[in-house]
Amino acid sequence: MSVSEGSVRGMLAANLRRARTRRGLSLSELSRRSKIGKATLSQLESGTGNPTIETVFSLSRVLEVPISDLLDTRPAGELTVVRAAETEVLSGEGVDLRPLQRIESGDAVIEVFDQRVRAGRRQESLGHVGTEHTIVQAGRLGVRVKDDEVELGPGDYVRFDASRPHSYTALDGEVRSVLLLQYRAEQRLHLSDPGIGGSHPAEE
User: Domain named HTH cro/C1-type: which ranges (predicted)?
Assistant: First the structure.
């Protein structure tokens, strides 16, 4: 099966293996830590799997890398346009995410996503690397971070430590929002480092 390197599946296939290798983890150990089946991980690394938000965020948490280190990035130019119809959607139990851009400035790395929470649905996360910022554009969004819960409307903003368990719930129809994930530059796994494409930990 041929997989485009520019697709979400293609980018994840290439980056996941390199990230796993850099951490010195076998497929079995990554499966144990992420609670993702070994067969599923093998499919993701071969580009034949269908990644979900839950899967990608779990891998981000276990491998301790930003989402964009798994999904790659688009080169920045003087004018960068990302068309909605040309961007693949990463879906989960309650949320559809479209990766738009990664911004690097000094020690800060910010990933920009178009986020839609489906009507009446809830998206749970055990936590992952970085700080999460969400700006609601339309609808009413319930945000729970560990034991704290808030309700947001259009124009409202929330920020929290993304390593804490959290969830988003659409309270009244679909919620449209902008999601920003912020990291420190040193949290990034530089996948172009020498040796990463070399020998791999045992597949077992």
Answer: 16-70
6 three-class SS: coil
How confident is residue 2, by pLDDT bands cut at 50, 70 and 90? very low
68 φ, ψ (degrees, to nearest 5):
-70, -20
Of residues 3, 8, 174, the one with CA closest to residue 87: 8
**In the structure, how many helices (H) and strands (E) does the chain have?**
5, 10
pTM of the model: 0.73
Q: What topology is assigned to 84-187 in CATH?
A: Jelly Rolls (2.60.120)
As its CATH architecture, domain 8-71 has Orthogonal Bundle (1.10)
- The C-alpha atoms of residue 181 and residue 167 are separated, in whole angstroms, by 15
Helix (H) or strand (E) holding 111: strand 108-117
Domain ranges for the chain, please list them.
8-71, 84-187
Q: What does the alpha-carbon distance between residue 40 and residue 7 come to, in Å, rounded to a whole number?
A: 18
Same fold, 8-71 and 84-187: no
Three-class secondary structure assignment of 88-110: CCEECCCEEEEEEEEEEECCEEE
Residue 80 is predicted with a pLDDT of 77
Convert the pLDDT of each residue in 122-152 to its tens digit. Answer: 999 999 889 999 999 999 999 999 999 999 9
- C-alpha 44: how far from chain center: 14
Specify which residues 97 forms β-bridges with. 90, 115
